[in-house]
Amino acid sequence: MEEELKCPVCGSFFRDPILLPCSHNVCLLCARNITVQTPDGETPVQSRASGSSDYDYLDMDKMSLYSETDSGYGSYTPCQLKSPNGVRVFPPVAQHRNCSLTCPLCHRSVSLDERGLRGFPRNRLLEAIVVRYQQTRGIPCSASPSAVKCQLCDRNPVVATVMCEQCDVYYCNACQQRCHPSRGPLAKHRLVPPPSPNQAAGGAASGGGGCGGGGAGGRQPVLTARKAGTCVDHEAENFSMYCCSCKAPVCMKCLEEGKHAKHDVKPLAVMWKQHKCQLSQALNGVSDKAKEAKEFLVQLKNMLQQIQENGVEFEACLVAQCDSLIEALTRQKAKLLTKVTKEKEYKLKVVRDQITHCTMKLRQTTGMMEYCLEVLKENDPSGFLQISDALIKRVTSSQDQWVKGALEPKVGPDFDLSLNTDSLMQTILQLDFCQGKDVQEKPLLKLMQAAADSGEAEMEAESPGVDLGPAVPVAPLLQLEKCCTRNNSATLAWRVTAPASCPIEGYILELDDGNGGQYREVYVGKETVCTVDGLHFNSSYNARVKAYNAVGVGPYSKTVVLKTSDVAWFTFDPTSAHRDIVLSNENQTATCSSYDDRVVLGTAAFSKGSHYWEVTIDRYDNHPDPAFGVARINTMKEIMLGKDDKAWAMYVDNNRSWFMHNNSHTNRAEGGIMKGSTVGILLDLTKRTLTFFINKEQHGQTAFENLDGVFVPAVSLNRNVQVTLLTGLEVPKNIKQ
Fold first, then answer.
1. Is the pTM of this model over 0.90?
2. CB of 417 within 8 A of CB of 340?
């Protein structure tokens, strides 16, 4: 709370604080130091000291008091003096005409009227809180000053002998005779003696404006009740009403004079109780948030230690395991270690940032709460109402800062990473696995299962004689010797190493998207073997499995990596072919029993990458027009390929060829086919092109804007043509675009 009780100009505890229209406070003496005089005819300020709250920021295009270039408070008279807090101060102003004061906190400016600084209300509540705070903590009081010095002496100021109430300036005898003679326009000014140090100390103790020094024996003075606040315009009248329109306490004479005739005026005591109630209610919400913030800080600090320990343990394990691998895994070890270090540094940075941010907000909130509680202890209605609106707004704004999620950790202490060398020495020789047509099933190309044996040993080590009650199933163990890939399909097998106390009801198998993306469920059931079809060619999939029972879902198994075939092996599909299509040679050769064109599709489906296959012309009679290309699975099969909007094809005779889609014929090219010719089809879903070859030479290419989705190889032919399908081919090089 101490920050709330210090002046923003001098940096010390408030002495005789005055309340500015912007609801901020400054010491009376500091207010004199930052008061500046503007040239006649210019009005750079937007509000008056008479209590108006309609103030705005200064127009920086004009000659304003605040300068962004020097980061201080400008003046028409250069001055290099600064307060301990870095706020620029100015020489004393002799007269209040065309004078203004800029708030050192919000930089809003207010002009002074003929009353000068006396036009600002004195914050008596803040004075009393400062005194009580200093006394309870034994802080030496700085509000009992030595004798007041003259404010106009050029060098070595002497003790002031008088003070002008209108000019609000202290004079010595010489300066008073020279600068403020009692004649002419100054004859009506009232000169009074300045307060003595003893009077200042006594007034501070009794009036709440300062702090009494330690008396004999170091005893603290006893605070007496402060007298009720009096009206600024009618000093003999006490505040008795509150103007809701002006948001200021007023006396009865102000009402009689008609200054607040059309305003909403209510009794002072009623508004005092109402505003106290509002502030108390707002504090309740902030108090709960502060309590949660303290508990959250403890949680974050404990998490720091956990992250440190887990990170060090994981790094040591990672280094020890990677060092045991052969030279081919050396580079992979460095990459994995870098990932762990980055993960740890990221988690630590996030938690430290949360601690710093939360600590700062908690300190601000706690200080404001303590200050508000001290304000609530005061029994001065008028003084309370002077600052209650601003405090209520601050408390409400502070509560809004603790939004949902602000008191939740952004990261967890655990590292969701695992690594082990089990089976790695046996499988590393298969890293360059190349699948051929005659070798359809082989172990995984890439296989890395972390802590498989150690996890099994831990589960088997549980004592069978202890009944722990129903529990979720343990993590299944993937059987690597039974896991394999074939073409664009993958088969996985698993088992449970320890019986669950509650029978297993089924398993959930998940695969990612082949690019390291999110996992998705591909199988849910009781079987322990599953084959997944329709995967992308030349892609690596991460797979994991978990078991579930009546109690709940168990943990995941270790992750296994599945590498699909680099090239596509497929045949003609008898299930989707037109009934007139005749297949032979293990569904690799196709002809037709009808003179009309009929469509047959392949068994493979493509959605990404580049794929190439060829069709050999085994028989070619009477110059028919077979078509070759790709199609959707639901393309029409009783017409030539490419006549609907679901197929893209090249149809060719013995002399020339055309590209056709949606019955539109384009890209005519010279050159045809005959018996023994070979037609190649290259589908590039990355570049969105379809390229054709005749006898190994590029014959044409078509680009598509809408070539997205799943495509299957397709051929249309009649009884005059017989073709044989060739697959598993490498993509041709040096394709012309």
1. no
2. yes
